[in-house]
Specification:
mainly beta; 413 residues; elongated; 5-stranded antiparallel sheet; 1 helix; 30 strands
């Protein structure tokens, strides 16, 4: 019987080993790809969980806003799960407040930061005029629309500068009687600026951005500050012991300006909180975007009236207020709003208001004054407009009350 020997050629063995290696690499790659896919899925799921937890932390912060301590971190556990802890905090930023919610898992974290305010559960009047024994006199094309709290002596027609009142009705809305004084304000609001170390102002800085999840920067000078063709965004306070002037070429977003005197030049456009102790001047064609703030807090007896002067063709969306810690009825604080200017928002003047433009929202004032070429008048309006055409989601500064109805004004990150 013949025996047959089978011999495998070395080349065939090589090819078999090669194919086995290729298959092993492919299988190993598939396992590695599967592992990476699982890691990616876990990472995406974790990010989604952290994002949701951060939002839940904000909901908690709004619900317990009054109980939250100021400038302190509070850790809470959500849903009793291991990765559902968040750190929430509350701090002041000018006339508003900031809440943040940080969800953390090991080295991964997601933070949500919002600028918030309180919205009253009751509808505020469109005009509150304190009862100082004088009626409100209307002239020309003046139109008052909405809800009003006015002196018991009421409203009457008047004739000034050759112009009779042209309206069919004196008030397009409802009226109740006002009190002798304006509603009391929230003293704690005035004004809790962030307390951070001061840095020297450097006029050579062209651009500065300070995120709201970092420490605020406070730039200070004893000399006048002129902001010209510079950009400042974020958690920045610029303060001068003398005055601040903002040019049209400046870029300002979310920052605070603080000085006895502040002036914003023609054609500027931005979002800023201006806090002064003597005067704020807003020149023609300025646009202040939501949620801007103009505030004068008179802190000492002045020989001239502390004031906010808003020139023609100005648009403001936000809040305006004038207060005095040392009121003097002989030299009252004054708010002047010139022709073709519009304030969309909340206005509070614990003094005299000259309104020649338009307010869409609410105005609280002790009295009106009107200057013409020939004379001056008390509690007169000429070609002025007050209406209730304010968006329902507008949030004013919490000057009159601290409501539990906390709303987000804008996201800061």
């Amino acid at each position: 019987m013949r025996r047959t020997d089978y011999h495998i050629k070395s080349s065939a063995m090589f090819y078999a080993l090669f194919l086995l290696s290729v298959v092993s690499i492919i299988i190993g790659g598939l396992f590695q790809l599967s592992s990476l896919n699982q890691q990616l899925e876990f990472k995406l799921e974790l990010e989604s969980i952290l994002a949701n937890n951060s939002k839940s932390g904000l909901v908690y912060a709004k619900a317990y806003f009054q109980e939250l301590p100021l400038n302190q971190n509070t850790t809470i556990r959500l849903f009793n799960k291991g990765i559902d802890s968040v750190v929430i905090s509350k701090r002041n930023w000018g006339a508003y407040q900031i809440i943040s919610s940080k969800a953390i898992h090991q080295s991964k974290q997601i933070t949500k930061i919002g600028l918030v305010g309180s919205q009253s559960q009751t509808v505020p009047p469109n005009l509150y005029l304190a009862d100082q024994g004088r009626p409100l006199s209307l002239c020309g094309k003046t139109k008052l629309e909405g809800q009003f709290e006015l002196p018991k002596s009421g409203v009457k027609r008047a004739y000034i500068a050759g112009q009779n009142y042209q309206g069919n009705k004196l008030l397009y809305g409802s009226k109740t009687d006002s009190e002798k004084q304006l509603p009391e304000i929230n003293d704690e609001l005035i004004l809790n600026l962030v307390t951070v170390p001061k840095s020297e102002w450097n006029s050579g800085v062209e651009e500065m951005v300070v995120p709201f999840d970092s420490v605020a920067v406070h730039l200070f000078s004893t000399q006048p500050i002129y902001i010209n063709s510079q950009s400042f965004k974020g958690q920045i306070i610029i303060e001068s012991e003398d005055s601040i002037i903002v040019s049209a070429n400046a870029v300002l977003q979310d920052i605070i300006l603080k000085s006895p005197k502040i002036s914003i030049e023609e054609n500027f456009k931005g979002n800023v909180q201006c806090i002064a102790s003597e005067t704020i001047m807003i020149q023609n064609n300025v646009i202040l975007e939501y949620p801007s703030v103009l505030g004068v807090i008179e802190t000492q007896n002045n020989t001239i009236s502390s004031s906010i002067n808003i020139s023609s063709h100005v648009q403001i969306v936000g809040s305006v207020f004038l207060l005095s810690e040392t009121p003097n009825f002989r030299i009252p604080i004054q708010l002047s709003i010139k022709e073709n200017s519009i304030i969309n928002g909340f206005v509070y003047c614990d003094g005299q208001t000259e309104l020649k433009g338009e307010i869409k929202g609410s105005l609280y004032t002790k009295s009106f004054y009107l200057k013409t070429a020939s004379s001056a008048y008390q509690n007169h309006l000429l070609n002025a407009t007050i209406s209730n055409n304010l968006p329902v989601d507008f949030i004013p500064i919490p000057l009159l009350n601290e409501s539990d109805n906390i709303k987000t004004i804008k996201w800061l990150n």
